[in-house]
Specification:
This protein has two domains: 206 residues, Up-down Bundle (Four Helix Bundle (Hemerythrin (Met), subunit A)); 196 residues, Zinc/RING finger domain, C3HC4 (zinc finger) (Herpes Virus-1), CATH 3.30.40. It is built from 16 helices and twelve strands. The longest helix is centred in the last third of the chain and has 45 residues. It is elongated, with a radius of gyration of 30 Å. Its main location: cytoplasm. This is E3 ubiquitin-protein ligase ARIH2. It is an enzyme of class 2 (transferase).
Length: 492
């Protein structure tokens, strides 16, 4: 849907989709197909742990390793951090070569290193002050320094945010300092508490099955059985993120690729601004059109011409040409042309993918307004005894599913941008185009249903049974397209 610029002002400061985090909830049952392909490839088992619960998990593993290796718990923690808390691997390696394991974890000197005894002159190796022998402290490496120098060393590093990374002061010695060596050297409880927090952070971040929730000031820890780039959601702050990289969930694009894409978008921000406007001209009457809904099926408010927002093609023939609209046509002869021509082609390709990436992001924001209107309308009808929440649930679920599918589709474009040309990319682009077509159909139907509920289109203010059935069928089709596209990504 669209309006001309004279009838509605543009708002370039749309808020992000506030309820992105919950559109995965409560929708699956309405679109589930009772067959083998009904499995959701995004299904992932995880649990949310409080600070106390995660401490308990860590302590159990520390005690296991400390008892088996006959070392103190603080040394066991350093070993676990080095080997990413893979307890079975640590125990197996300890049985085969205990000395090598301890030296690799930087808690014991390797057999090739020579221990150095405390200087006979009782002189600190840092401040060069002569002190009593019992005032010198040393790690197993026997590099001895006075207590004051150790205190200064530890204090400076902890204030800089260092946890398990504190090591011996001697040059070329990387032996790690266990926490029971560091804590007594830190002045004041405040600094000791900071050190404990940094240790906990390092313990969790090094654990192959744990991730700290990236939500602001959130203490929760996510635990999984098998670490993968999957969608997880914090039960406390509702933050949704990728377990592997702790960034915003990005399937089907992998972690490394989305980092490259976001960096490129930031570096080319001025170029991106060139195409970030909300307006285009109607291809038939040339009136300026503003996109005020998420759907790419546009209808000019003046001449009523139906066209595609992205390629400006006639919508009547667009159904059979959607593959061409979402696929970038590579120039096979570009490698034989000048560097300037290659640079222009590279920019053209980037703009093609960025415009579609950004368009779906804006559609999510615009459709959030539709979702909010639907929520308010349902609440109003229920309060006025015009049906129950269950009677209007289908509209709520349709809007949530639309956001869920569009969010996936948005992240297909960075993935396609970096894919090598070939059969695999052609298959992916075909699946991408299929999903895009079904999402636009669903978006059109949701906006139409919203208009009916608000009494804009006419009638009695509600969809007919056939229209409702058509909407629910479209929900099912769109979700199945989304799962088909993601299945290949998650299977690799």
């Amino acid at each position: 849907m669209s309006v001309d610029m004279s009838s509605q002002a543009s708002d370039s400061n749309e808020e992000d989709f506030g309820d992105q985090t919950d559109y995965y909830e409560g929708v699956a049952g309405d679109v589930e197909q009772q067959s083998a392909d009904s499995f959701d490839p995004e299904e992932y088992q995880f649990i949310c742990l409080s600070y106390k619960d995660s401490q308990h998990v860590l302590t159990e593993e520390v005690n296991t390793v400390a008892a088996a290796l006959k070392v103190s718990p603080s040394v066991a923690k350093l070993i676990l951090v080095h080997f990413h808390w893979q307890v079975s691997q640590i125990l197996d390696r300890y049985k085969s070569n205990s000395s090598l394991l301890l030296s690799e974890a930087l808690v014991q000197l390797s057999s090739t290193c020579r221990s150095v005894t405390a200087p006979q002159a009782l002189q600190c190796g840092v401040c060069l002050q002569v002190v009593w022998r019992d005032s010198l402290l040393a790690l197993p490496c026997q590099h001895s320094f006075c207590k004051a120098c150790w205190e200064q060393h530890c204090t400076v590093l902890v204030k800089d945010g260092v946890g398990v990374g504190i090591s011996c002061m001697a040059q070329d010695c990387s032996l790690r300092m266990p926490e029971d060596f560091v804590l007594p050297l830190l002045p004041g409880e405040e600094l000791k508490d900071k050190y404990r927090r940094y240790l906990f952070r390092d313990y969790v971040e090094s654990h192959f099955q744990l991730q700290l929730c990236p939500g602001a000031d959130c203490p929760m820890v996510i635990k999984v059985q098998e670490p993968r780039a999957r969608r997880v959601q914090c039960s406390r702050c509702n933050e949704v993120f990728c377990f592997k990289c702790r960034q915003m969930y990005h399937a089907p694009t992998d972690c490394a690729t989305i980092r490259k894409w976001l960096t490129k978008c930031a570096d080319d921000s001025e170029t991106a601004n060139y195409i970030s406007a909300h307006t285009k001209d109607c291809p038939k009457c040339n009136i300026c059109i503003e996109k005020n809904g998420g759907c790419n099926h546009m209808q000019c408010s003046k001449c009523k011409h139906d066209f595609c927002w992205m390629c400006l093609g006639d919508w009547k023939t667009h159904g059979s040409e959607y593959y061409e609209c979402s696929r970038y046509k590579e120039n096979p002869d570009i490698v034989n042309q000048s560097q300037q021509a290659q640079a222009r082609e590279a920019l053209k390709k980037y703009l093609f993918y960025f415009e579609r990436w950004e368009n779906h992001n804006k559609s999510l924001q615009l459709e959030a307004q539709t979702y909010q209107r639907i929520q308010e309308k349902i609440q109003e009808r229920v309060m006025n005894n015009l049906g129950t929440w269950i009677d209007w649930q289908y509209l709520h679920n349709a809007a949530k599913l639309l956001a869920k599918c569009r969010y996936t589709l948005q992240y297909t474009y960075p993935y396609a941008y970096y894919m090598e040309s070939g059969p695999r990319k052609k298959l992916f682009e075909y699946q991408q185009a299929q999903l895009e077509a079904e999402i636009e159909n669903l978006s059109w139907k949701v906006e139409r249903a919203d208009s009916y509920e608000r009494g804009v289109v006419g009638g009695e203010g509600e969809l007919s049974a056939s229209d409702r059935g058509d909407l629910e069928n479209q929900m099912h089709i769109a979700e199945q397209r989304r799962r088909t596209l993601l299945k290949d990504f998650h299977d690799t």
